[in-house]
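Objective 1b. Sequence-to-structure analysis of Cytochrome C.
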Amino acid sequence: MLAMNKIKILGITVITIVATIIVTSCKDKRSTGWEYAPNMYEHIAYDPDQKNDNFKDGKTAQLPPAGTTPLGFVRFDYPNTKDGYEKAGLEVKTTLPQTQANYADGKILFEHFCSPCHGVNGQGDGLVVAHGYPAPPSYSKGQSSRGGAMKDLTDGKIYHTITYGVNAMGSYASQLEPKERWKVIMYVHHLQTL
Ligand code: HEC
């Protein structure tokens, strides 16, 4: 009886050891093991950096065809130069409905993004100016460093300035999407009359 038990225990031990060796002896040490829903790991869509025979250059990541515009992208084909600024000043005009709601949004955006330098009334007396930052000219009484009175700045010139910045003023293109820029411009036009 005792001998039978010993053999049983030995048998179970051997089976356990062999099973453990089989289960843990994966050759690929980076293997994730047993994959649940493997098509989540090995999906059928191409990865951007994967080889792809469907294209002549064999790459998956392709440049968009020349002259195309991504969905929802607003073009602004005026370079960051004095000429680009002047040209935008003549050609680019707002298409934003001049509503009270857009004006109110513009005021809030202006107070968040622009007033620290330009001041809440656009007089170039913002908080950081009080601490020594170069003062921007007043929107209503100042002169633009690019010529002309600040009160005469057009839609396109202000849009160009917000998009690229000018001298001590940085670009706000990554903070304000085109529609928001037009809202701010609506409010700047109001400040030009103060
Ligand atoms: C960090 C401070 C700062 C902030 C913030 C700032 N500006 Fe300016 N801005 C300036 C300075 C300084 C100038 C004058 C630059 C120059 O002409 O040398 C200026 C100039 C301008 C001009 C005149 C450009 C021209 O053609 O002469 C406009 C318009 C303008 N800013 C609009 C804005 C708007 C709109 C915002 C908010 C989205 C804004 N700025 C945020 C500092 C700032």
